[in-house]
Each structure stands twice: as C-alpha cells, then as structure tokens.
Amino acid sequence: MNATPEGVAVNGFDVVAYFADGAPREGVADHSVRYLDKDWYFATAEHAALFAANPAAYAPQANGYCSYAVSEGYAAEVDVIDGWTVIDNKPYLNWNKDVRDTFVSETDARVPKVTANSSKVLAGLLDGTTDFYPHSSDPSVDISHPQRLN
What we know:
Layout: H1 15-20, E1 28-35, E2 38-42, H2 45-53, H3 55-58, H4 67-72, E3 75-76, E4 84-87, E5 90-93, H5 97-105, H6 107-127, E6 132-133
Parallel strand pairs: 3-6
Antiparallel strand pairs: 1-2, 4-5
C-alpha cells in the first residue's frame, strides 16, 4: 500500500471521509488503525471504527497509487485532496484533478484495467521492474508530500 516513509497510508488522510463527508479530511494519529502493515489515520473515532470493521471497503483501489497510472501498467503518486473519486462505492486516487477527470470519463475502460494490473504493478514496485513517478519528477505539478489541507 502506498504510504509515507513513516508508514502512514494515504498521506495521513481519512479515507472514510471521502464517503461520509464527500470531501478529504486529514486524520490524526490518535484515531489510527493498523492495516496492511501501514498506519491509517482518521479524523474521528467513528471513522476509525468504520474502517476497522471493514477496511477493504474504504482502502483505495490500485494499492493507493494513481489509478490511471496503474491502468497503464506503472505507478505514480496521488493527489489525496483533489485527485480522489468514488466509483461503484470504491475509492480511487489519481495524480491530480485533471487525471482524475480523465479517469472518471473513461471509467468503463479504466476500472477493469486497474483491477487487472494492481497486483502486477505492486509486485513490480517491490522487485524494481515497474516505473514509479513522484510528483517531484514533473516541475509543472505543484504538489508536495505529505499533502496538507490549508
């Protein structure tokens, strides 16, 4: 699962908030759940409890990497503030808002490719055979990690 170097999933953002609030929210360590060897932070104890009861329902698809990138067979960082969407009750993260909009407009073609490629891309990241693109590799992108709301 995509995480910070400290092992915090989704840049410390509350993935339940995408569903419950329809917006990104920063989580806090006081409301954390350990899942897939990562720490997941939540804005409230209620959100942490919802996640703990069914983490697979809330964990982002594509192992938390850019869904568009994974549909193409590589991995990229995500914009947890503007690059998220929920499709068929599943969360997807993308490089930025524009890539998210493209992903959403191509849902019928992209979602099956994410499902088909996720395991292969993750295995490739672990053994070094899959390319990974951080936001810092593109000077036109003004996203630094970990992300924070204003």
